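Collaborator request log, item 7. Partner lab (contact: R.S.) asked for a structural prediction of ABC transporter domain-containing protein to inform their binding assays.
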Amino acid sequence: MVHESRFKSGIYYSQSPSKCSIVLNNVFKTHNNRNIFNGVNLVAHSGKICAILGEINSGKSMLLSCLVGGDKVDKGHIWVLGGQPRTKGSKTLTKYIGYMPQEFCLYRTMTVLELFAYFGNLYNINHKFILWRISYYKHIFTLPPINSTIKKLSFSEKRIISFMIAVFHRPRLVVLDEPTIGLDILKKNQIWKYLHHVITTWKPTVIVATNNIEEAFSATKIAYLKNNKIIFEREVEELNRTNPNKSIDTIIEDLYTSLMSTNVEKNAWFNSNESEIPHNKKLSIYKRLYPRSNIWKFKTIIIQNIKFLTRNFWVFMLLCVIPILQVYLHCIYYGKYPKSIPIAVYNQETDCGHDQCKHIGNCSYFSCHFLYVLSQNGVQINYYGSEFSTKNSITKESIPGFIKVPKNYTIAIVNSLTQSSLKERDELLKSNINFEIDMSSNLYIKNIIATKKKLYVIK
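Returned to partner:
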């Protein structure tokens, strides 16, 4: 009953698996000007364990990466569960693949329980099934406490956790890159015993890359990768039956020597009808009857990112606190409304040198009223006795601009209000106040212009 309700939503039924879950047809690939594959052919069946045996740097990891869509081949074709990796419809196949790379790809700040919950939510697996699955693994493997942080686990514990994540969602294809490297003999036997168990239950296709000959003979089939090619593929039972009194190393060496010396066609199996390569056929292991929303994936990633930030102080400071601090400092030093803007004033209408313009009660001229209102709106008035000294203050005293009030300004304003039309151009000029501003100070300019518009509305 637990197995049937392990998905949160959606109903699935298993189709009969294809005769060949994986087919590689004449694959070529180069990497960094180095020839990696030179006509690789391979067939893997459902319910079987295929061990890719090869020396170090023979291209085993690259081959597995091409199977799961991590790398692209230069020439040839790859079919995985009826689809081709790195194509438009290949994203639907990723949820049916469990991949364990040779490097650690776990979230170091997560706990064991959080890691299983994270991947379980990505695969839309019910939380009760996640807990049941963890308790089931505890009876098979020696697991650390579920509240242990990944970064505090030992090397072997991390390898076991990586392996369990790869098979956790019961995929149709399990790809393992050196799964038992660095493990003791007990944990190696546990992993291989579990792999033989899963191929008899939900019958996935298991691909294991290894450079250990004895470990390769624990699989059901061996594919020997050497000289950028798959030299031979043989069932392990067949090798043991035809060579009963030979050691494992001797069997592989004799078989390789025999094939090289007799120049046997090593890819004859590929021309048979056994491979059944699909042509432009969408084949899925599970058929979806009800569509599922992708919102739960977005929610899972958001929760994981929040946990990551809260557990990494300096990363949190870098991504969150520092930008907030930058915005705050910018608003403090550059976002305030400018005050006390110095402006030089030359008033030809009256003598402002004796502070006549600073007291509105002692001055009856309109220019005094105008300058007084201007001083009340964030402008610092500096009076000068001549036009030359006023303009000279802009360069010497760093004043952004000056104001020149013409003679008889008050009389010109009164005449413009009482007379219906202005006949003379001089009368019009006398009723204007001249502003000259240094255009290099953009912030001051905008504030002065805004103040002038405000005063115009007041008037």
